[in-house]
Sequence to fold (205 residues):
Amino acid sequence: MIPIYTAVEDRLSAAVVERLLGETDGKLSIGVAIPPRGAGDLKKKLPELVRLAPNVPVILLTDLDCKECAPSLIGEWLGQQAKPDALLFRVAVREVETWLLADKQNFASFAGIPPAKLPESPEDLDDPKQMLLNLVARHSPSSLRQDIVFDRGSGPRQGLVYNERLGQFVHTCWDPAQASMRADSLARTRRRIGELAAHNGTRNA
Fold:
């Protein structure tokens, strides 16, 4: 088992990374999880993560948001720094919520949303998080809706237990393999994690 560092924007992304590492059959585990404090803080920590990665593998996950593409975001963040092979700099297109919506059947079942209402190509959405909130606000049972959505008349916003309830979905219902079929950025992330697990497993055999 190889302990790694993880660095993410928020608690939902942390749950997703934990779930993806669980697919490595124990080859990779979280040694240190850097507390999530948003993209700005993550960007500030990048030089430290670059220095660390040659000694300890690092997985960094951030959202693309309004940037044009993942390579441009990575290039902007890295600047003149070379990226070590053991730094997995992964970008969710456009937000990590895309990866949840991409598991269409399981998310529909979890949230009580008609499957036909979920997008076929969630990576094409401009604001996946807002679509998720809108769908939950319109279709989900009140017990889930009250946790995930806050709305005082200005439209659905993130509720107080948003990360906890969606994290519950990630750990108990989410199927990354199914979601990868509708989210290429997730498929690429799973592939890179698998390669990292295989490489370190061979090196330590």
Notes: The two ends are 11 Å apart (CA to CA). The longest strand covers residues 2-8.
